[in-house]
Specification:
The complex is a heterodimer.
Chain A: E1 3-5, E2 10-14, E3 19-21, E4 24-26, E5 32-38, E6 44-50, E7 56-58, E8 64-68, E9 73-78, E10 87-95, E11 101-104, E12 108-113
Parallel strand pairs in A: 2-12
Antiparallel strand pairs in A: 1-4, 3-9, 5-6, 5-10, 7-8, 8-9, 10-11, 10-12
Chain B: E1 5-7, E2 10-13, E3 19-24, E4 31-37, E5 44-50, E6 53-57, E7 64-68, E8 73-78, E9 87-94, E10 104-105, E11 109-113
Parallel strand pairs in B: 2-11
Antiparallel strand pairs in B: 1-3, 3-8, 4-5, 4-9, 5-6, 7-8, 9-10, 9-11
Classes of the chains: A mainly beta, B mainly beta.
Chain lengths: 114, 114
């Protein structure tokens, strides 16, 4: 069965510092991989996705993620964090024929210090 | 193009009661998925409807049921509510036509079972 592990429950970074959120997945085939962000009272917003091809994918809001098959990882990065990035971030793997039955990790809460 | 909306925003029910949550998909979307997000956890896939037929189900009992209507609206029904059903319920819609298409999430309905 598919599963996603996000080892860090909380992360605090200073504004302007770099960020890396970790994600490990378990999936038998080539996975559809996603990162979503959830702000309080908001639904989930897609930051980026990986299906195939270039293992470094660019997303919205200056985020990027790198797919590493050998490590079963799909870590999210941002070179310089802004206070508005404070939110909860979810990594997900897409199951089903079109990858649209999502299996989410438990999430990482990002706090940004000014 | 309107976004995905859900109603009500909040709901309080008593154990043993029944509840209906509603979702209005984006116009033209033929697929809707429902997720349960318990406090401090990532969303869990409940089921998906494609063209008004159930198209996959997660590890949820039969008292969780759904409907999808031709007018892009859908319902999640939960019978015999239990305390553990307290959660944020998210719906997500997409247009599936032989390949992946992005899912758009609604803001959720917060259900509290007392």
């Amino acid at each position: 069965a598919q599963s996603v592990t996000q080892p860090d429950i909380h992360i605090t970074v200073s504004e302007g510092a770099s960020l890396e959120l970790r994600c490990n997945y378990s999936y038998g085939a080539t996975p559809y991989l996603f990162w979503y962000v959830q702000s309080p009272g908001q639904g989930l917003q897609l930051l980026l996705k990986y299906f195939s091809g270039d293992t470094l994918v660019q997303g919205i809001k200056g985020f990027e993620a790198e797919f590493k098959r050998s490590q079963s990882s799909f870590n999210l990065r941002k070179p310089s964090v802004h206070w508005s990035d404070a939110a909860e971030y979810f990594c997900a793997v897409g199951a089903g024929e079109y990858g649209n039955k999502l299996v989410f990790g438990a999430g990482t809460i990002l706090r940004v210090k000014s | 193009e309107t976004g995905v909306t859900q109603s009500p925003t909040h709901l309080i029910k008593t154990r043993g009661q029944q509840v209906t949550l509603r979702c209005s998909s984006q116009s033209g979307h033929n697929t809707v998925s429902w997720y349960q997000q318990a406090l401090g956890q990532g969303p869990q896939f409940i089921f998906q409807y494609y063209r008004e037929e159930e198209n996959g189900r997660g590890n949820f009992p039969p008292r969780f049921s759904g409907l999808q209507f031709p007018n892009y609206s859908s319902e999640l029904n939960v019978n015999a509510l239990e305390l553990d059903d307290s959660a944020l319920y998210l719906c997500a819609s997409s247009f599936v036509a032989g390949d992946y298409n992005e899912q758009f999430f609604g803001p959720g309905t917060r259900l509290t079972v007392l």
